[in-house]
What we know:
By secondary structure, the chain is mainly α. The chain has helices spanning 10-32, 39-64, 80-91, 95-119, 125-136, 138-146, 151-162, 164-176. Helix 5 packs antiparallel against helix 8 (164-176) and helix 7 runs antiparallel to helix 8 (164-176). It is rod-shaped, with a radius of gyration of 25 Å.
Amino acid sequence: MKDSDGKFVSPFILRLFSMIMIISTVFVKGLLSPYLNNSAMKRMYTRLLVFMMAFSMITSPLFAVTVVNPTVKDETLPSTVTVKQAVAEFKSLNRKEKKQRFKQVKKAISEFKASKKAAGAEPSTNTLLLVLLAILLPPLAVYLHEGAINNKFWISLILTLLFWIPGVIYALIVVLS
């Protein structure tokens, strides 16, 4: 969901997740009601429910700041004229020069892969926050990682609503892949 500027409207989605958490907690209470005969158990469950509601209301403005609108900048893409000139220049080269260019390209690609592998060795802060969020709210972590509501989001939401642990496992797989 986007507003008129094309930015994601995250508070709405966070409120939606808060409501889903509260509804699922109430649903679990319905399943556990035969076992909540003891007044201490009822008190503990009520405190847990109040804590979940307070936590979801307090943290939603904090997480709303982290939503980023994924966009592709047109400045990084070369123009069609530049591409056509480069292709024409490459076609005008003789066979030996083309082999040298291919070697240079292969070397540049291998250097790029090595630098990418070295940079990916230590996880970024964003990944760590997404892992924590995947444990607390799996569908939200999948949504923030993917940048859109897609099939992975819906699978995570269904797994989380049915059983929380499979939702967490699936969200961790998506975030860390």
